[in-house]
Every structure is written in structure tokens, then in C-alpha cells.
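A reminder from the course coordinator: this example appears on the midterm review sheet, so study it carefully.

Given structure:
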């Protein structure tokens, strides 16, 4: 797959697409109330937790794409400051959308040879595989967010 095609697939799930899931993160999260996104439903993660979780990986991959180190760890992927106000939530969303735009741009500008190359170390697979995993991981949590949001706003 070409860098532009992969970048567009990423943008579809996070920023502007409807082809696969008929929605995206931005459509689900913009104009949401901080109290709803932090509301606990049974034993499920909150909408805010899931959004911040995806953002954690996007931000960490951006660092690598810019030539930095791979510092993200699964065990820290749900460790972030609590959202305690609408201001906190809105600030998070601005950062999320900005980092997602940067991710898409960095992927789009990536040489095809880099896509096929090892991501940091051979054991992590290729850049392409990691970007595709980010897209798949995002769709997985987008589905959760959509269902939780429906449960919280229903009836």
C-alpha cells in the first residue's frame, strides 16, 4: 500500500471517514460533554479512557516517525490525568486532533522504502504493519466508544 492510501485510511477512522464504520472518532467525540465521556458504565472503560488510550499510541508513534525513540509501553497506555472539567476535555480533543493530523501527514510523507523497513527493531515488524495495527486498534475502540455512547444517551 502507498503512504497516501495508508494515511487516508488512518484519517478515515480518526478524523473524517465514514466508509468502514459509518462514523469516526471526531464525529463521536466533538461536542461531547465531559461528564458523559467520564461516566462509568458497568465495568467498561469510559469514553475518555478509550480516546486517551488511542491518543497515547498516536503520540508515541509520532515521536518515532519524527526520528525519536519508541517510549510507549502497553502497561502505561491507560495512565493519564483525569478529565475533571469541560476545559480539560476540550483541551484533550484539540491535542488529539492535532496529533492525529500530524500522524497522517508523517505517514503520507513517508518514503515507501521506509514503510517496508523495520520499525525501530525487527521484532516489531515493519512501519506499515505498525501503522495498519494502529488503524485496526482505533476501529476496535471506536466501536466500543460508539456503543458506550449509545448506552449513555439512550432512554
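Designed residues:
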Amino acid at each position: 500500500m502507498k503512504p497516501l492510501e495508508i494515511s487516508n485510511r488512518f484519517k478515515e477512522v480518526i478524523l473524517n471517514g465514514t466508509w468502514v464504520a459509518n462514523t469516526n472518532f471526531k464525529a463521536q467525540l466533538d461536542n461531547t460533554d465531559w461528564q458523559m465521556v467520564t461516566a462509568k458504565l458497568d465495568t467498561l472503560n469510559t469514553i475518555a479512557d478509550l480516546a486517551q488510550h488511542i491518543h497515547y499510541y498516536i503520540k508515541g508513534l509520532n515521536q518515532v516517525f519524527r526520528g525519536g525513540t519508541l517510549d510507549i509501553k502497553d502497561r502505561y497506555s491507560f495512565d493519564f490525568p483525569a478529565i475533571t472539567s469541560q476545559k480539560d476535555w476540550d483541551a484533550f480533543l484539540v491535542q488529539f486532533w492535532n496529533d492525529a493530523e500530524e500522524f497522517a501527514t508523517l505517514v503520507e510523507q513517508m518514503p515507501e522504502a521506509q514503510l517496508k523497513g523495520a520499525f525501530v527493531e525487527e521484532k516489531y515488524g515493519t512501519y506499515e504493519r505498525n501503522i495498519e495495527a494502529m488503524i485496526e486498534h482505533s476501529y476496535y475502540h471506536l466501536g466500543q466508544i460508539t456503543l458506550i455512547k449509545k448506552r449513555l444517551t439512550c432512554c
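The first helix runs from residue 3 to 16. Helices lie at 3-16, 25-29, 34-37, 47-65, 86-108, 112-116, 127-153.
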